[in-house]
Predict the 3D structure of the following.
Amino acid sequence: MTTTAASTLLGVDALLDPLQRALKGAGAEGAELWVHRRRASVVRYSHSSIHQSAASDELDVHARVAVDGAVGTAEGGSLAPDALRDLISRAAALAKLQPANPTWPGFADPAPYRAPHAFDAATADLDPAGQARAIAAICASLASGQRAAGTHSVDVTEDAIANTHGVAAYAPATVAYLRALVQGEHGGAGYADDLSRDHRGLDPAGIARRAREKCELDHDRARLAPGDYEAVFEEDAVAEILRFVSLTGCGGQAVREGRSFMAGRIGEAVTGARFTLHDDALDPRQLAIPFDVEGTPKERVTLVENGVVRGPVHDRTGAKLMGTRSTGHAADPDRYARGGHAGNLVMAGGSATREQLIGAVTRGILITRFHYTNTPDPKRATMTGTTRDGTFLIEDGRIVGALANVRYTMSALELFSGIDLLGPQRLVRDWWSTNGMGSIVCLAPAMKVSRATITGSSPA
C-alpha cells in the first residue's frame, strides 16, 4: 500500500504533546525530553540489478533531569506516558547519585526559531518502486559492457524537544540520495552521486553520464611517484576535507582545550584569502532543522572568513565555559562530543567550470573522492587515506590518463592556503556521512589548488 505524506509523518501532536504532558509531572528543578524519529528506505543494486530493498522506522527518546545542580540522563524508545515518566524518573535517580556540576548551564529558555525548510512531502511519500525507477534510469544510460552498483536512499526524520522552561519545538526533514559506481569490462570504475531534500532534484541520467565518462577514462592505470602536485578536488573530495575541519577544529570545546586549529588564533589568517567557511543550517539549500537538541535556535556562524579565523560553534555547556552563549549547535551526545558540532557547512565557491579547473593545471591530479580517511594531526586538520573511483593525471590542462589510487597526507589549512580556482557549490556529504557514520552536510565547490602532497600509490 502506498502511504501518504500525512501518514508518513507522526506529526507535531503525536511527538510534542506527549513530551509536554510528561514534563508536567517531572517534579524536579528542571527536565528536558528530546525525541528523534527516523524512517529510512534504501534500495541497493549491483551488476545493474536491484538485490535489496529495506526499510526501518526508529524512535529514540532522550531525557535529561537536573537535581541540585547535578544532571542525569536516560534513553528509551517509546512515547507512551508510562515510558516517558519512567525515563524521567531514571534520569532523576541518576542525577541524585552525582555531585553538583559547576559547569551545568541550565536548560534552554524558549526562543523563536525559523520555520523548518528541509521537508518535502513528495519525497516522504516516495515508495521503493519510485526509487527503483531512478535506478533503472541509471542502468538504461550505460554503454555496452558497463554495469552499475550503488544505492538510492530516502530518510524522513522528525525531531521534537520540550523542557520545563517552556521550550517546545518540532521539525520534520527529508533526505534523498542516489549514487552510482559504473564499472567497465576493462576493470575501470567511475563514481557520481546526488543529494537533495527533494527526490526530484536527483538526476539519474546526469549521475550515469558523470560516472560513465570516468569509467571510460579509467584504464591502463599508471602509478604516481610521491611528491607535491597541483590538484583538482571534486565536490565529494572537498566534503571529506571539510569533515576534518569540522570535527577537529570548529567546536568550542576543541578550541578551549587547545586541540583546534582555531586555538589561540582567532582573528588571525590560517589559510589563503579564497577560503571562507560558515556553518549555516538556515541556508535554504541545506538539509537541516532550525534548532538543536537542546532546543536552542540555530544561528549562522562564520568560522573562517577570507582565510581569517572568526570563531567556533557552541552548545550551552561549552558556551558557559567560554563566557559566551550557545549558537544552537548542540548535537546528539551519542554521536558527537559536547561543546558544539558544525554539521551544516557552507564553503564559498566560485564560477569556474570543471573544464576551467582542469585547464588551469600544468601537471597534477584530479581526485573524485576519498576512502577511509583519518587524521594523524588534528591541530592542523591533517587527513590521510586513499583516493577512489576516479583519479587521473592532468598535463597541460588535459586529462591524459588514469592513475592508480594514491595515498596522501594533507593539511586542510595548507590545501586551502593554495586555492587557485573555485567552482559552484553542490550539496554533498563526506564518505563517512554517506555511509551512515556521521551527519555532516556540505555546500561545497570543486577547487583547484597549487599543492597537494602524495605519499604513495597503490599497485596499478
Q: What stands out?
A: The two ends are 49 Å apart (CA to CA). Residues 220-460 form one domain. The chain has two domains: 5-207, 220-460. The CA atoms of residues 415 and 422 lie 13 Å apart.
